[in-house]
Amino acid sequence: MSAIPLPRGWPVAPRVQSLIDGASPALRAGGVDLPIVNPTTEEPLTVLREADAAEVDAAVASARRAFDSGPWPRMDINARKDLLYAIRDHVRAHAEELAWLESTGAGLPIWRVRDQVQRTARVFEFFAEVASTLHGETYTQTAGWLTYVTREPIGVAALIAPWNAPLSLASMRIATCIPWGNTCVLKPSEYTPLSVRRLVEILHEAGLPPGVVNLVNGRGPVTGAALVDHPGIDLVGFTGGTATGRTIMVAAARRLVPTALELGGKSANIVCDTADLDRALDGSLIGIYANNGQQCLAGSRILVQRSIASEFIDRFVARTKRIRVGDPLSPATEVGPLAFEGHMQRVLDYTKVARADGAQLLTGGARAAIERGWFVEPTAVLAPSNDARVCQEEIFGPFATFLEFDTLDEAIDIANRSRFGLVSYVWSDDLPTTMRCSREIRAGTVWVNTPMMRELRAPFGGYKESGIGRDGPAASVDFFTEQKATIIPIDPPSIPRFGA
Ligand code: NAD
Question: Does residue 365 sit within a domain?
Answer without folding.
Answer: yes
